[in-house]
Design brief:
414 residues, alpha/beta, Rossmann fold, Nucleotidyltransferase, domain 5, 8-stranded mixed sheet, 14 helices
């Protein structure tokens, strides 16, 4: 990767723009449509993405889409971060014809970065894929795609808009997870793949950080994914595999519930909407999991209840006691709530639900990548992923209720 230059150093180099252009070519050659950069934490993915966007502007691209997991990530990492766009551009920067393009101006209120030659990069969040419906681009940078909440929907909308110029291209920079979308991009014939690990970039990382990562995560499953960028196969002993997940259109619903798994302190609030169809099958309709204040997540639960015309809210009372119920009732005092208490451990509770999947009796809607990622890491021995399996817990509560509610005790619908 290139070291950051001062304006004076960059201007001095720009005396021969042909030489500078050749020196900065970081993308692989060939006729590819997507460049997938799979790399571990701290391996230089963001710097590579920012340098690639700058290359596209220098080559004449005028409309670039920048997509991150959240709006904050787009701003804080892709644009203003230590390795973001603003850090790799300078006032004397020139395009491949020797014309000044300058250091871009970032306008947060307009969600855009603008260069002197008129090129514009617009920021998008994977939380709002519909915002990508309409805008066009001739280049696209997708950062941390494996962390996108609505990965497939966002990617689809982005690809529909990547249609300007003679050779529109996308770059994806991400630490991998075994998601269907990541695998699909990786296996596409028009994808160029670059792989790297955390230790490839050792000279730019703190020795203390590297030592800590080696000591704690070397040889572990999490280390293989987050440091060495391996796309891991199904976890041995996992209750769910990708083959057990069926996706097809929703049937008409005879009953819908909202499952809620409250946070045990700082974790996400699991919120899953599921239904039982008139065909007797179970349908996972939406993952509305969030990390909000009590008032915020309660409003989200109630909103999802009304939006889907649900019949019941099923919420675990293990954390917070009556606080969970009272919080939801503050948002809407009239919604029917069933407070449940787990009578068995998480894995035992999840087994009958996993059996439904094995029987192909559960259908998933699109956009459930984060939930499915958690499911793949849920074993008989417990959850082997990061944090709490909040989404899976909410899924189990919802489907258990639809199946008959035999895996918990409850105080009755109120």
């Amino acid at each position: 990767m290139l070291a950051k230059l001062t304006d004076a150093e960059a201007d001095a180099l720009c005396y021969d723009w042909r030489q500078l252009a050749r020196a900065e070519q970081i993308a692989p050659g060939g006729d590819w449509g997507v460049w997938l950069f799979l790399a571990g934490r701290g391996a230089g993915k963001t710097r590579a993405g920012a340098e690639w966007v700058r290359e596209q502007v220098k080559a004449g691209c005028q409309r670039i889409s920048l997509i991150a997991p959240t709006a904050g990530d787009a701003r804080d990492v892709m644009v203003e971060g230590e390795s973001g766009l603003l850090s790799v551009c300078w006032t004397g920067d020139k395009d491949h014809r020797g014309n000044i393009i300058g250091r871009p101006i970032y306008e947060p209120s307009k969600r855009r970065v603008t260069w002197d030659n008129g090129a514009v990069a617009t920021l998008f969040s994977a939380e709002e894929p519909e915002r990508l419906r309409g805008p066009q681009s001739d280049a696209l940078w997708a950062d941390e795609l494996a962390a996108w909440q609505r990965a497939q929907d966002t990617w689809d909308m982005a690809m529909f808009g990547l249609r300007l110029g003679s050779n529109p291209r996308a770059m994806v920079t991400t630490t991998p997870k075994p998601l269907p979308l990541v695998r699909a991009i990786l296996n596409d014939a028009r994808t160029a793949v670059t792989k790297g690990n955390t230790f490839d970039n050792a000279k730019h990382l703190a020795p203390q950080f590297l030592a800590a990562m080696r000591d704690k995560y070397h040889g572990t499953r999490l280390g293989r994914q987050e440091l060495y960028a391996e796309i891991l196969d199904d976890v041995v002993g996992a209750l769910w595999t990708m083959d057990s997940i069926v996706k097809r259109p929703m049937a008409e619903m005879q009953r819908i519930v909202v499952g809620v798994d409250p946070s045990g302190g700082g974790d996400d609030i699991g919120i899953i909407v599921a239904g039982r169809g008139v065909d007797g099958l179970f349908y996972v309709i939406e993952d509305a999991t969030c990390n909000m204040s009590p008032a915020g997540w309660a409003k989200r639960v109630v909103d999802r209840y009304h939006h889907h015309a649900a019949d019941l809210i099923v919420a675990e009372r293990n954390f917070g006691g009556d606080m969970v119920e009272s919080t939801i009732r503050t948002a809407d005092k009239n919604v029917p709530i069933k407070m449940v208490t787990a009578s068995r451990g998480k894995s035992v509770r999840a087994e009958p639900i996993a059996a439904l999947y094995e029987q192909q009796r559960v259908i998933h809607s699109r956009g459930l990548d984060a939930l499915e990622s958690q499911m793949m890491q849920f074993t008989l021995s417990g959850f082997v992923g990061d944090g709490s399996p909040d989404r899976v817990d909410a899924l189990v509560w919802a489907l258990s209720e639809l199946q008959g509610g035999s895996d918990y005790t409850w105080e009755g619908a109120i």
